[in-house]
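Async update (no meeting this week)

Hi team, since we skipped the sync, here's where things stand on the single-chain job. The sequence we agreed to prioritize is pasted below, unchanged from the tracker. I ran it this morning and attached the output directly underneath so nobody has to dig for it. Comments welcome in thread, and please keep replies under the output.
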Amino acid sequence: MSLVKGDVKLTRTDRGVLVTGILHTDVEVPCDRCLTLFRLPLTLDIEEEYFPTIDVNSGVAVEIPNEPGCFTIDEHHILDLTEAVRQYAFTAVPIKTLCKPECAGLCPVCGQNLNEKQCIHQHKEIDQRWAKLLGIRPSSGREERKDG
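Output:
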């Protein structure tokens, strides 16, 4: 992930600090068709509550909520957004990533990136449901009939 930019708002709650905001970043991902790495821009809409581990006034340890994956403010009273941003970015990446909508992909025979140059292979698209029929040769038209 590269530099993260944006604005966040910190709001005190009865249990901790609510962080809300819109952040912009990009991540390097492989194209699902040609496997080329490219930068994918992401917009993250963050909303998380952070819980203190130390009381600000007394310095005594505070019990954090028994919630899986909750974020905490450390013993130095630092609220670090790194893990939340990582998790939001991870879930924001689409299932299928393409370097460009018209990406030609790779040659299924030699693996050449067809966006860079064409290869020497014939690229006929064959519907795999009919592929077994390619092995059947047409008869000469004269069938021998055997009546028993």
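Quick observations from my side:
The chain has one helix and four strands.
The two ends are 76 Å apart (CA to CA).
Reply here if anything looks off.
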